Structure formats: C-alpha cells, structure tokens
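pasting input
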Amino acid sequence: MHSGPTTLLQGTLDLLILKSLIAGEMHGLGISRRVQQITGGTFAVKPGSLFPALHRMEEEGWISSFWGDSENNRRAKYYRLTRAGRKQLEAETKRWGRISWAIAQALETS
Amino acid sequence: MPRLAKFQSFLRNLFFPRSVEVDLDREVHSHLEMLTEENIRAGMQPKEAQRAARMELGGVEQVKEQVREERVGNWLRSVISDCRCGVRQLQKNPGFTTVTVLTLALGVGANTAMFSMVYGVVLRPLPFKDAGHLYTLWERNTKMGYEQNPPAAGNFRDWRDRNRVFEGMAAFDASRTFNLAGNSSPERVDGAAISPELFELLGVSPVIGRGFSPQDDPLGQNRVVVLSYRLWQRRFNSNPSIVGTSITLDGSNSTVIGVMPPGFHFPGDTGTVLNIFTAPPAQLWVPLALTPKAWSARSSHYLEVIGRLRSGVTADQAQTEMNSIEDQLVKEYPRDYIGSDVNLVPLHTQIVGTFRSALLVLFGAVAFVLLIVCANVANLLLARATSRRREIAIRTALGASRSRLVRQLATESLTLAIVGGALGVLIAAWGVTMLKLIVPDNFPRTADIHLDGPALIFTAIASVSTGLIFGLAPAFQTSRTDVNESLKEGERGVEGIGRDRLRSALVISEVALALILLVGTGLMLRSFLRLQQVDPGFKPDHLLTMEISLPRYLAAQKTSFYSQLLERVRALPEVQSAGAIGHLPLGGNIDSYNLEVLGRAPLPNEYANPSCHVIMSGYFESMKIPLREGRYFDARDNADSPHVLIINDVVARNVFPTVTPIGQRLQLGLNGFTGEIVGVVGHTSHLTLDYAPVEEVYMPYPQVPFSDTMALTIRTASAPLALSRPVQDLIRALDKDRPVSKIRTMDDVMGTSAAAPRFRTVLLGLFGLAALLLGGLGIYGVISYSVSQRTREFGIRVALGADLGQILRSVIAHGLKLTLAGVLIGVAGGLVLTRFLRSLLFGISAADPLTFASVALLLTVVAVLACYIPARRAIKVDPVIALRYE
C-alpha cells in the first residue's frame, strides 16, 4: 500500500493541486499542466496519481466538480476549490512552511 | 460540512455505483482525448499522438482501478464484490468446495462441541452465591493414601466451632437413599442428609416453603423433608400446596417443608471421596439429625464438609488455622484419630476434579485436528491457485494491486471458512448430544453443557481464524505471480520453488501434528488396556448384583430376611453360590474405622484404618475371592455365636507381620465391635482399579445388622441377567413393598468404574483416527499433485527408456522424505507435550518408547500407501499422451 515516502508525496500532491486551483476552475489536464508550470517542471503529475487524488479530495469536500466545455469545445470535468478546500490549503501551507523550515534548519546545522 | 460530503460520497458510491463509474469513464476518456489533441498541436501525427497520450495516461483501466481504490467505502465495495466473486469461484469447483467445506465443518464442529463441554464444565461459574469462597474440607490421611478422607462427626463439630476463618460450615451425608412410598408404587430415591445451614451457605433458597432450621435438626423426631424440583414435578404433579403434606419415607411419615429451585441437586455433581466419585443428584433432603452419641463419634468417617471462607481471609490463612485445630484434635484424641492435616479444596476444583485435565487434553487434541485441517485446506488452495495463475496474471495486468489480490484471495478463504463454520455449528449441535450420551455417569455438570452464546462466539472466532490461517499463506504465494511468465506459459505452469517449499512445510507440519496426536491416543489406549488387565481381586464374570433396602426392620428381621432370601436364591437352577455385602467393590464407597489389636501394644508406626464391610456368608464364594488362611464365614457365625472377623492380606501384612493373625482378637471403631480373626482373604479393588490395595476387614452381617441396604452377589452358570426376574420374584414373595434397585452384572459395575478412562480413550481415539486420515490425505494430495505436474517429465523419461521401478521409487522417496521429517519433529514435540497426559496414564510412562515407535511406523506405512497410489499413476503414463499434455 502506501509506504512512508508516498504519504509525504501524497500530502505534497494535495497541496499542489489545491494551490493550482486558487487560480480558478480547471479540468484534470489543466491542473496537471499548471502543477508542472508552478513547480518549474519539477513535478510531472501522471494521471495514475492525479485522478485518485482528485476523487479523494472531492470526497473530502475540499474541491467540487462539474462538467463543462473545454477551450476546444470538448466536454471535460472541471474542479473548483470549496470553502473547506481554501481552509485546507491554508492549513497545509502553514504545515508545509513549518516542515520546510525545520528541514532547512536541520540541514544547516552540523 | 466535509464530514457530510464524505458521507454523501459514501452513499453515492454504495448505491449508485453505475453512475459513478460512467462519470469516471467519461472523465478518463476526455482526458485521453485532450492529451491526444495536445500532442497533435505539438506537431505529432494523429496515430503517434494517440500512442503518446496512452503512454502518458498509463492505461485507462489501471487509472480507473486506482481511482476506485481511493474511494470512500471502497473496502465495503471490494469485500462485497470479493464475496460475490468468491462464491462464484466456489460454485465453479463443486468438488473442491465440498471437500473443503466438509473438512472445515468437521474440524470446527468438533472444536465447538469440545468447547461447549470445556466451557460448561470448567469455565462456567458454579450456580452458587460467591462460589469462589466455597471450599470442601477433608482429612488427609497419608498413611492410607487418602487425600480426601471425610471427617468423623465429632471432628466436624470441632472444626466448625473452633475456627475463625470460615463464615459458615455445613456437613452432609451424600450417600443416602430412601424408600419413597405413598400414592404410587414404592421407589428408591437418592438424597442427602444435611446440616440445616447448608442451603443458606450455598446461597440457594427454596422456591416453595422454607429450608431447614436448627430446630428441625437436633434429634429428628419431627421428621421433615425438602424436595427437589424434579421430584416435586414428577412424583407430586407440581402440587402447589405440597408444603405441610405428609409423605412416606422409609416407612414413616415425614412432612414436606419446602421445594428447591429447578436444577439444584447438591451434593449431586460434587466430586466426593478421592475426587473420583460423584454423588448422584439429590432428589430430596432431610436434616442430618445426629444423636449426641453420633456427634461425639471420632472414628467413623462419612461426613462431607463444605465451608464458606470469610471475606478477606486467604486460603493459606484458612489452611494454617485448620491444621492447628487438627493438631489439637490429634493431641486430645490420640487413639481415635491419627490424621495428618486438613485438605482444603476449592468447590470448583472438587466438582470438576480429574475431569479438568482430561477435558483440557481432549480440547488440545481437537485443536490439533483443526490445525491439520487448516494445513490440508491450505494445500488444496495452493494446488488450486496454480491452475488460477492465468486469472491472477490477467487481474494484475488490468491494474489490480498485490494487496487487492491478497484481499480477494483471503476473502475467498474466509467465505469458505464461514460456510464451513456455519455447517460446523450443526455438527457441533449433534456432537454435543453425542458427547452427553457417552460421558461417564460420574461426569460433573453435564446439565451445564449446551451449545449457547459463548460456544457460538467461539465458533465464529475459530472459523475466522481458521480462514486466515489456511488462507493467508497461499494468498501471499499466489499473488506473487510474474505476469509475463504466467501469461506466456498458459496453464502448464512451472512450479515456483517457494510454493513447493510451502507445500512441503505444510505436509511436514501435518505429519508432525498427527504424530503427536496419535502418540497421545496410543498412550491412552495402552494405559486403558493396562487398566483392564488389573486383577480386581474377584472374578466379575457370571455375577448378578442388585440392591435391597430394609428400613424400619428390626435387626433380627433383617438377618432372617437376607438368610431366607439367599437360601431360596441358592435353590434356583443355574445358581452356583450367592452372598451379600453392604457396599459392592468398585462402587466407590469406603467406610473406614480404626482398629486395635487386643492384648498387644500397637507396633511402632502401626496405624490401621481399614475399610470395613458387613457381608452375608457366601459372599467370598460367589465373588471367588481367594482364602489365604483359616476359613470363610458360614452358618455358625450367627447373632448369638462369638463375634468373628476376616481380614484381607494387606491388614495381615501391616498389622501381623510376624505372627499368624488367626485367633487374634481385634476391636474396631465401629461401635466397638470386637471379634476373633478366623480367616485371611485376598484384597479387592474397592475404589478404582488403578488405586493401590487398601486394608479391609469383613464382619458377618448377623453380628452387625446395622446396614439397611445390602447388595446381593449371585454367581450363575449362565447369563446373569436372566436370573433377575426369578430373584425379584423371590424378594417380592418375602416382602412385596421392597423396591429393588441397581440390578446389574458385576461386569457392568467394573465397566462403570472404568467409564472415565474409557470416555477419554474413545474420544482421543476418534481424534487420532481423524488426524491419521487427514495426514494421509495431505501426503496423498501433495504427492499426487507433484506427479501431475511432472507428467511431461515422466513421459520423457519413460520414452527414453527409464526404469519404471526407479520412477516409482523416486516418487515414494519424495513422500517418505517429507513424512520422516514430520515424524522427527512430531517425536520431539510429542516428548514435550505428552507430559500433560501423565496424570491420566496408568502403568505406562508418558515417553513410552513402544508407543512412540509404533505410531511412527504406522504413520510411515500410511504415508507410503498414500504415495504409492499417485506413484503408480506416474509409471502408467503413456509417453505420447504425456508429451502432448498441456
């Protein structure tokens, strides 16, 4: 199942998805590209991780979905942030800040 | 809100799976198309763009499966679908399913039945108030080897009055029977004479009327009786106004003062002397009513004592206090009683007694059978898994994760286990009924054995853990399938080394378990046979016995009744000899009294406390008890002639080691009976066959006509029971109101005394047989599977001209290797585990080499047979078919 590193990664993925949806509603491919863009290409989100994460987050109530037309007039499923999602993003951002600060501290000492 | 959203999703996933699925499918496909478009925009050819998109997506079905895994309530969905799938799989293989479910049902059923028994007898609390504080109290008599000798009335009174550790103490005489006459035909009923505080001590009160009060007790002039619920229902039609009415008990009127609640039969089910015999369920109770003279008696040991410990007092403190009281008594009455100390036994231990260890051993044995069943089923599952490798590979290819596969396979096993368990409950219900039928008469608490809540909880736990035990290992093995290999190979399949090893390990452990169980069975069987060979000191064949009781007869009338009766019995055709005795051998009664040799100081260390019997002349002759010296009793020894005694060879050895006992005069603690020894006879087994010979003294009944009840012993030339009618006719001709009871052959009496060892031997034998069969099946299964896997190889070897004998030998050697490994482990385990049998064995060591060797040989022979059948198949392989065999 999920071993240690993946859970960390999963949390990270959630954070990145929430963050990219701040810019507005987006479909799966859009989110994937946006994550790639805002992380400077460090994270390439594969559909195999993206869709399970989106569905889980929707069930958590952080995002909601609706069917709409894509830029090329194709039916696509769009996601948007809910109020709970914004709160979650704030919490996750703080948490991530703490973690990265702590890790940075740890690496600086020695 | 998030919680609510989650719950909504859960409901949606559960109840509208189709719309959820359609939505997912559309989403993934739209994603794929957008990817393709993106690629085309980037300048790819449409075909290439599509391919690249698919590569990036990583497979539509896999992505969908990954999403499904994340959904809320996914576990529920997958459990349901796994169950459905499991049931479908099982339906597809009816042969496999039937065999597995039936073995599981038998295993779980047998375990549940044994658990019901262990729970009812050992674990369920006794139906008395604060039963943990109740103790039975005995005098330990190390000289005679009695751990539990009932105290004399005088000693009981002093115990009760001098101690400060017991809240209350009550005595009872459990072995009383009464002639109940009145509105219908006379009958003998078992009952007890009890001190008035007994009911209160146990915390049980009558449902109608009252219990005894000390005013009822003193001398028993105003006769009162309390009835059991069952007797009240059966004999008095549940008459609600029974209290105050008069019934005829032993020929005189007694007033009913109360009825006890249903199920209360104390001291029935209470292990008595030496923890071997159990008093019959009491049907009525009368006050103990001892005369002042009886209260001061210190040499006749017949009262059983129960006490309730004060709260806050430990068993150790009580023990110390009681021992110091006993020491005082020994100092005060040095000639009357020379005991060692007081033996305090918790009431529960007293009741469950020796059956506790027997039950636990049997429970352990049946658990072993279940483990063997598990190993067998695991093997079957492994074999089946091999033929399912393609299915597993396809599932893996379609994106099923390993955990998902393990879960699915485990669910299938659990389904099997639960179906098996459900069927097992039916088998257990039947098993409990059977167990209750075959338990020995003296088995405690049989009424408490049912298939109820705790037993069903046990079944559930046993089934589920069985399912996990036999299902998990094969599931892990199976799910570790290499997709490419499996799909390429098709159904042929090459055995993985790991799987082969697991299968061998299962067979080895099966053989080891079976060996341990069989060794236990073998030891029990040999010890039982030893017990059967013990010489009881008399010849039990062709002997008829029955009991008659003559209350309200004067002493002279009793003697003349029995003399006349025996005279007429001897005149019957076929009768060779006839006599009578107060308590039959092997009936479990010991009435012991002290003994003093007149005209001689006691020898140093002399301490005789023989078991005393009154007999009618003809007893020794009919029982064929050998005369060692002097003479038997005969017509000379009547009420008016000088008093005489016969002793057994144990008394002769202990008390008269240097002089001849004939002509010596003895005085007994039994009413001061004094007489001259006229004969020495051989000893008889009076308690049980495995109990060491005890001192015995016999007196002629005409000179001590106190006992109301006598057991006739009649030796005939033909079938003993054929005489029962003519003898009863003779009794009726003498007194038509005398009920006759316990009409049995002496062989039956012997059988009853061996009932407990027989019970555990038979049960353990059944479990051992099951283990042998299952073990054989296990070996057969594995060898025959490996033969079928190697059919091609054998075909090639035969085609190349291999020696058939060699193939046969190699197959058998494979099985034999596994068996021998199992045998070795089993012998080691057996040496450790048979220690627990030690207390149940007689005349045989727990590490008896003969038993170990023969069981090992037996298992090996069975294993060779089990290998031979598939081995024969291996050499009969037609090379042409074998090579085509896919």
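fyi The radius of gyration of chain A is 15 Å.
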